[in-house]
Amino acid sequence: PLLKGYFVTGTGTGEGKTFVTRGLARHARRLGVDVAALKPIETGVAPEPLDAIAIARAAGRPELAHLPGLYRVTPPVAPFTATLRGEPPVPPNAALREVVLGVTADLLLVEGAGGVLVPLDYERSVADLITSLRLPAILVARNALGVMSHTRAAFEALSHRAIPVAAVVLTEHGPHDESQRDNLVVLRQLLPGPLVRFPSTRDDDDELADAAAELWAVLG
Asked: Which residues are catalytic?
C-alpha cells in the first residue's frame, strides 16, 4: 500500500525538477525506503523519455519509465501545443491517476512537466493533475533573478487550488547573479512552510542524494 507521496512541480521548465526528484529517490533508497519515481507526462521524447528514465533509475525501478498509459510525444513543447500540432491528446486525469497510483511503493515521487500551469488541453493544467492525484506538491525554482515573482505566483496558483505545498526548493545550478545571495532569505519571509536549498552538484545520483538531504529532513 502507498504510504506517502509527493508531486514535484516547478515554476517553469529547466528549474531542476528532475535533479530534485532523482536526489530524493536515491536518498530514499540509501535509507532502505521502497521508492517509486515516475513522470506521467513527458514531451521532447526523441526517442526516449530521458527525465522519466533518470528518475526511475535513481529509484531502482527502471521499468517505471515505460509504463503503459503514460503520455510521451516527440515535440519539446507544452502538451497542449503538441496536441494542436497533431500529436495525441493527454489522457484524462482519471486514466493517468489509475496508472500512477497503481504503482506500489512506500514513497511515490511524481515529476510534473514544466511549471504548475502548463496546459494539458483547453481545460486542464499540470495543477489539475496534481489535484486529481491528491498529492502534496514540492515546488522547485531556480535561485536566480526573477525567482521571487515566479515562486510566489506558482505558490499562489497551488494554494488557490488547495494543493498543500510540502516544501519550496531553490536549486543552485545555472549562471551566477547578484540576487542569489538573498533570494532564499527574502522568500522565507514571504512564504509559509519550509523553503530549502538544493546545492549545485555534478550530474550523479549519489551527489544529488547528498544535495537532497536538507529537503528529506524537512519532509520528515
From this structure: 39
Contact 215, 163 (CB under 8 A): no
Residue 57, Cβ neighbours under 10 Å: how many?
A: 17
Q: Which stretch of DSSP H or E encloses residue 174?
A: none
Closest to 139 (Cα-Cα) out of 125, 128, 153, 123: 153
Per-residue pLDDT band for 1 (boundaries 50, 70, 90) equals very low
Q: Are 133 and 110 in contact (CB under 8 A)?
A: yes
pTM of the model: 0.97
pLDDT bin (cut points 50, 70, 90) of residue 220 is: confident
Burial 78-90 (b: 16+ CB within 10 A, else e): bbbebbeeebeeb
Q: How many other C-beta atoms lie within 10 A of the C-beta of residue 47?
A: 6
